[in-house]
Amino acid sequence: MKQTENTGPAIELNRLTKRFGDFTAVDGFSLTVRSGEIFGLLGPNGSGKTTIINMISGLSKPTSGEAKVLGHNIIHDTRVVYAALGSVPQETALYEELDAWTNLSIHATLYGVHRSERDRKITDMLNLVQLYERRHSRVSSFSGGMKRRLALARALLHDPLLLYLDEPTLGVDVQSRRAIWNYILDLKKKEGKTVLLTTNYLEEANALCDRIAIIDHGKLVALGTPIDLKRRYGDTVMEIETASSVSPQLSAKLSILPGVSEVIQKDKILKVTMSGDELSLTGQLITLVTQEINIKKISQREPNLEEIFLSLTGSGLRD
Amino acid sequence: MNILNIYPAYRSLLVIWVMAIKDIRSSLTERAFMVTSIIIPINFLLLFLLFALTGGQAPTAIVLEDKGPYAQQFLSAMEHSHSFIIQQTTNTDAQNLMKKGQIVAIVTVPGSFDSLLRQGKQAQLRVVLNNLEVDFTNDIRRAVPLAITSFYANAFPNQVVIRAHEVDTYSHDTGYVQYLVVSLMVVSVMLGGLLQAGSNAAREYEKGTIKELMLAPASLWAIQIGKILGALLLNSLSVVVMIIVIVFLIGVWPEHWDELFAFVLLLMITFVALGSLIGTLVRRRQAVIPLSIGLSIPVFFISGAFGPAIWGDQVTATITQLQPVYYGIAIFQHAFHNFTTTSTSPAINGFILAGFAAVIVAISALTLINGRGRGVVH
Ligand SMILES: Nc1ncnc2c1ncn2[C@@H]1O[C@H](COP(=O)(O)OP(=O)(O)OP(=O)(O)O)[C@@H](O)[C@H]1O
Ligand SMILES: [Mg+2]
Questions:
Q1: ipTM summary value
Q2: Where is A14: in which H helix or E strand?
Q3: Is B163 a residue whose pLDDT tops 50?
């Protein structure tokens, strides 16, 4: 059941800007999210992720710029977009004084889920987030993680084409997090849904996202697949243990190779830092070293997103 | 099965119903609900009534400088108003009693009273108040005009807009309390409706669940009307208690039950819609409560709660006709006592009130709609 036939991009943001007084929370942000991808917005606290989600949900009006969702201008075709959109806001907001089942049942009515399917869908969703046993408990008696899972179940109930997940696993335990990740991956694989998520967990972005946008101070800092980003911004560190110390000449020769940013030699250990993870460069290094000396052991540390994130956004604490 | 395919009107009805039930269930789980929605309006009714009854004990001296038939009739109107303990004295005695603090007011009927009235001119009653007793003096400020109204109804039955079904019934049986309690009921219905609907609307913003509503592909008209319906059903609990108190405890028997039920419903719709408008605008329950009380009390005073509003000064009389409580009080006085306190008929008042109800429901829904797509979270 497809609500809106959509062949173009799922989300198109064109110089989207949001100011609060003199403070610019989102600054000329342009981005295209393709249909069927899981896209991650990654950024430190206060970088503007939620503000972007609010604007493309129509919950907040952009100061300038334009947001198109599923080919529609969110301000003009609000209800068409909403029928195809599922949203888990950052702050879990459920009717806490009501039970889990009632929360989902209210949602089903608001989204026009047909009576004949309603109970089955609610049951499926509650099973998915492992809350079926607690369906008649008041939500106020749930833990933070349980509420989060219920919010996710609610967002999925009407089978949306596009999902916004603002920190979907915030406060969720490891077991549930894995389950939610698998479910998000399935949504894409089996059902072709588009997911836009924000996260602070690099591991989560790495595990789920086809593409990531790193944002800071409301601006796009880097965009690409996790592999792209590592290649472009990450460092690979190769440790080569040799039979005896290498000559200073060799060290110097290695350090001027394009792509090598640092060479440190300590006794029989040579530590070479390379930007990106160019395989050809690794090969070249090994060839040059073996010409002079026997290699006893090579180890290589892959670039990781956390380093990239810190190097792009700085390591100072955010608000 | 396309989710937008369900017949839209049916879908909207479902949404209205689900929202109403949701708000009723949410409110019933909150303990504060009992206080804000049932106890406050009934307290308001009873406290104001007590306040008015203590005014009934206000010892007052009346000095008749004129002993003509109109002056006597005025004295009798004062005596029947249930608001004063009347002592007829000379001017000197009255001054002495006042000095000793034994009376709180002196009402003087001037020597020219009868002749002025016979000539159709204005007669001035002098009222001297002992301002030290603020409660009493306020009561007297209100009770004197009522006595005057009552006096007019007897003395000049053809010139008075209040036309009691039987003049005797009105002047003897419908005292201050009976008149006032009906007005108080209108304002209590107002207060109860504002509090109930205001809290229901503000709670969505406080808890953040407004986002869920805003993001739903449902009609916001249906959502807001559903919330209004929910508040209406909850509000009817307190209204039923109020009617029981008025009819069985205070013993005011409505002359027209049909009018009472029809118009109480109209009034409830009006104020519940106004409450949901206020809640949607201020978004905080803590702000809804003082606003509701702060709105009800002044409206109560200008709407002819103590006597027909059109007897007040021109400005107040005009302003008061622009708001629903004026028509509500008029309609209720008719339903309970068969009074006509306005120049318009009960049917016209009913239509005007229905107009208010429709317009306020619409404004309330449009206010919610105005938030969609452009800034629930700014
Ligand atoms: N309503 C508002 N009024 C004023 N400033 C705001 C408002 N909403 C957000 N901001 C500011 O905009 C900036 C971006 O906030 P936003 O919530 O989008 O950050 P975020 O990237 O989602 O952060 P987090 O990871 O902590 O959720 C912050 O500096 C925040 O203080
Ligand atoms: Mg955020």
A1: 0.80
A2: strand A11-20
A3: no
